[in-house]
Amino acid sequence: MFLKSKEIHLKCTHCSQITAYQKASIVCPLCGGTILQAEYDLEELVHCHWKDKLSTRYPSLWRYHELLPLFDSNHIVTLGEGWTPLIQAQRFGKLIGLDYLYIKDERQNPTGSFKDRQASVTISVMKEQGIKEMVLASTGNVAISYSAYAARAGIKLWAFLSGLTPDEKIREIQLYGAEVVKVPGTYDQTKQVAAEFAQNQGIFLDSGLKSFTSGESMKTMALELGEQLHGQAPDWFIQGVSGAMGPIGVVKGFEEMMALGMVDKVPRLGMIQSSGCNPMVQAFEKGEREAIPVTDPKTAIATLATGNPGFAYSWLYDLMQKYGGAMEQATDAEAYTVTRLLAQTEGISVEPATAVAFAGLIKLAQRGIIQPQERVVINCSGHTYPVEEQILTEEFAPEASTQFKW
Amino acid sequence: MFLKSKEIHLKCTHCSQITAYQKASIVCPLCGGTILQAEYDLEELVHCHWKDKLSTRYPSLWRYHELLPLFDSNHIVTLGEGWTPLIQAQRFGKLIGLDYLYIKDERQNPTGSFKDRQASVTISVMKEQGIKEMVLASTGNVAISYSAYAARAGIKLWAFLSGLTPDEKIREIQLYGAEVVKVPGTYDQTKQVAAEFAQNQGIFLDSGLKSFTSGESMKTMALELGEQLHGQAPDWFIQGVSGAMGPIGVVKGFEEMMALGMVDKVPRLGMIQSSGCNPMVQAFEKGEREAIPVTDPKTAIATLATGNPGFAYSWLYDLMQKYGGAMEQATDAEAYTVTRLLAQTEGISVEPATAVAFAGLIKLAQRGIIQPQERVVINCSGHTYPVEEQILTEEFAPEASTQFKW
């Protein structure tokens, strides 16, 4: 109810046209551009008292509803996502030479990854817009998350999954009742197939960074960090990157908090890619603003196997020029080693894509790019969870060849 | 720092002797009894202002430190556990005829189950007591949770696992660096083997309900419910039961809140067991205070396969006589069916032991024992997560026969 009075505008990243956001306005009315960014009346918000009440609000990302693109709280589709713990990693930090390392534990979201932020905000906006059916392409985590929230909202979901998606993740997606289409190809090819299907069928396509709700959702990580660190932004924000939606959203969050007087700066970005799929790293090393796609990713880590980052890299590159930052890469083997090290020093078990970020962080510290005294926050993006394989196999995928074990 | 001034006493459940709790006092000095319950100076606390500040405190179970058995906050071993979301289940509730069904989403804990409460409180107390090594018996979830927190605290953990423990859970436990001992028998047999090992080696044994920290940790669920429901206790608290530690702790939490004027009542208990291992249900139906052990559990759901509940059942029985409640049971097949129903209506994916509780809830509603208008909270105790099987298999269990898939 409480959201109805706010004003939101959408700015086209192509022609800079600014339009009042209304239901169903998801393309630029001037040029047809599809990459829009939400803008809020920050001057109005800076004088409001909502900031003083923040600390007593319910700990989910929706506590920042003034800065989220929803008009009516009745449309919120939530599983309690966000406001994840910020955990100081003293033992692991000491091992790698960092005195103030903090882990933003995104594993503690409803489906175990930071994609739940995106699903909650996007599905809520879709509910507000009256959309009943949608298509997306995924390497696994996004589809798991969206299928959970779509089930909750009663929205039909078509999940197109790339060839690397593990069977366990596919079973989880099916459990939520989504329609699964396996594409025997790369993530980039899967996105293409999904887009064609959506267009042919006239179904709404959620296209990652191009859907303005994605960046809006990811920025809530920054809003939480500002509150958890009492207005002192970290010196560095570290994340494994594939499509770059996370860091782009996080920077927007810090920028908005700067405008609202809630933090003191925007952190530098430490962006880590898999060595087997590193188009951004290659371009960044050469100082280039455009990345050459990797057409044949050589990594087993599906979540990081985006060969063609497209405009997202250029966007990220510009932000890193403005606020500072560094790119690094890590091999799958390095990631697996770090998985064990992190579990045994901090009690934190992560999925391989997350381990790549930790492995890259070690290198940035070793290279002296990150200094021992700097405050570092790393996005601990997803969990290595035990699955009740027997159950899911027997009941939900009876055709699977896995042997039932008891 | 802030915890040092408080007074805690331990009451022996055998001889009722009350002793001031100090470091290392973990048995009754009068009779040697090992089942102790913590007591706090509630009369002092009722006049304090800490309750007014609760809503601004960090959302973890440690926000209730006045009611937890730790003296020095420097000993807290935390991964941000607790203060899990309370999610209203409107669609699933409507299907089963309940208007006010709330899911306490314990999946959103650091290792994905409510056992993280127990691990955080117990390992913190062990750290305070200077204990460096410990033994426990488990069917999986407790060992996963303890191994994570023990790793974080630098405590060596011996995990004795029953024969039903899934391989995925064992790998997760090994990832954290715990010593794993697989016992090819029931959970009751595993507990016996673990106890003998601990005694022979002179290592501290964590023995579930007998360790007073366990009940203390579980009661934090009640404290959170009191706060999340604004002082109105639910009419029912539902949980799948095996060792009964959860509900016994929860009742203690509501009792303390009653004494502190923070809630209006103690809820009735809806306790669900697996049909294949239902010693409590059998005894309760006959109105008996002692349960006859099930020596050969016939369920594939390890988490609920405690054949001999021992004194825990009598304790629970007394509480259910005092506050009201009902017992129910569900088969494995019923649990699997409910897993799908819950995922597709609410976007919540649960492990089989949790699904048993939901299946039993349906029966309690159908039988009219729970009325449509009553407020019901169910402990959504653990997650059905996808595991990155490939990684864990290849790196951490190279001897496993599972085929590497890409």
From TrEMBL, chains A, B:
Its cofactor is pyridoxal 5'-phosphate. It is an enzyme of class 4 (lyase). Gene3D superfamilies: 3.40.50.1100. One of its GO terms (biological process) is L-serine catabolic process. Residues 77-382 form the Tryptophan synthase beta chain-like PALP domain. Keywords: Lyase, Pyridoxal phosphate. GO terms for molecular function: L-serine ammonia-lyase activity; threonine deaminase activity; threonine synthase activity. SUPFAM superfamilies: Tryptophan synthase beta subunit-like PLP-dependent enzymes (SSF53686). Its EC number is 4.2.3.1. CDD domains: Thr-synth_1. PANTHER family: L-THREONINE DEHYDRATASE CATABOLIC TDCB (PTHR48078:SF6), THREONINE DEHYDRATASE, MITOCHONDRIAL-RELATED (PTHR48078). This is Threonine synthase. It comes from Planktothrix tepida PCC 9214.
